[in-house]
Amino acid sequence: MRLHRSLLTAISVLAVGGTALIGAPAASAHSSGSHHSGHGSTGTRSLAAVLASDGNTFDHNPYDYDIVTEAVLAVLADDPTSPVAVLADGKVALTAFIPTDQAFRYLVHDLTGTWVKREKDVFAAVAGLGLPTVETVLLYHVVPGATITKKAALKSDGAKLATAQGGSVKVDVRRTWHHRSVTLIDKVGQGPAILIGISVGLICGLINSALIITSGALTQAESLFITFGMSLVYGAVALMYVQGVTQFLTYSTTDISIFNAINSGGIGFLSVSAVLFLACLAVLYVIERRTYLGRAVVLTGGNKVAARLAGIPITRTIVFIYAVSGVMSAIGAVVLVSRVTLADPTMGTPYTTQAILAVVVGGTALMGGRGSVLWTVVGTLLLILLNNCLNLLGVSTYIQFVLRGVILILAIWLDRVKQDLVSK
């Protein structure tokens, strides 16, 4: 998605008699290059007042700012202390890259796949994303404490600006034979973004391993609770980083072809996500069955003290296994984001119980020392089959949670009974 956002400059100059406000659109949001005359006024008018100078009712003009105006009013009605109030202040110097009504129409099309004609319906679709998301979109376009004229903006290709949303954007000036347009790009690129995500998973895994080693956790239960506690910490940090706002891939102004390929692409008769799964499975199987490190993992999981006495480098083994776990989780997150086209720190929470259940059903001993990559896959397939059967039978979602809990308890109990019989 690429939205060519109009540039409005709102300059508030503090003076004895009040403030001065000047707005200057640089380019329309539509690729045809239609332009509009700039707003110019003096006094104490805010940017919101300038935007509403032609009325704040929905009309048939796709190049004005009715939807932005209504969005600002809706956010402030819900939370008068919202940072969006800076748009209605009139006393704060700022530069706003304001999307036109047509730009929002393109946004709704990217989100829903359908063209919405009436501005009222476009606004309803945008508001349906949730007011916190609308607030983030509005603040993304505001640069507080800075004033940029139309002429300066068109000469600022490559400049980086700090936005009121808390991040930074890059100004990209596009030139054609009949007009120039200004686009904001929050860009690291899809390749680097995926690598950063996998690197974050690796770092989280390394942190988990460091905590387990330094705390002297010897049992699987201790390790499990440490990693579960850290998952809550990571989720909270992610929520603070995104300020609790769901991130949509369709908001991206850069290429997302890799995510699209993972979502709907294929290699032969297999989907890209299935190929990624088989590749990860093959690597883990080879490590488990054909390497010294794989055998060290099993021995360390069974009894850390005995493994240490046998000469197994348990510290290195623990670091390795949790690093691999973090990378696998990150790859799974990339696939999940590609499939649902949005990212939220809490979207993986429902999979926690299912992941434990699949491992237990696959025969992995919670006490450690026994398990298999292939049997874990079998456990996963059985769980998927169970979920599909329950859905086809019309079983309530709540009852399904009960059944999963019962299966998990039963599997753990049977595993414990089997361990006792073996020990005898």
Span of the ends, CA to CA: 64 Å
The amount of beta strand, in percent, is: 5-15%
Low-confidence stretches: 1-44
Number of helices: 16
Got a strand count? 12
Oligomer: single chain
Shape: elongated
- Report Rg: 27 Å
* Adjacency order of strands in the biggest sheet: 1-4-5
Biggest β-sheet: count, sense, barrel?
A: 3 strands, antiparallel
Integer tally of domains: 2
Roughly what percent helix? 40-55%
Secondary structure class reads mainly alpha
Q: Please, could you describe this protein's structure?
A:
- With 424 residues, the protein is mainly alpha-helical.
- The protein has 2 domains: 180 residues, Roll (FAS1 domain); 234 residues, no CATH class.
- It is built from 16 helices and 12 strands.
- The strands form 5 sheets. The chain has a 3-stranded antiparallel sheet with strand order 1-4-5. The chain has a 3-stranded antiparallel sheet with strand order 6-7-8, with no helix packed on it.
- Helix 9 crosses helix 13.
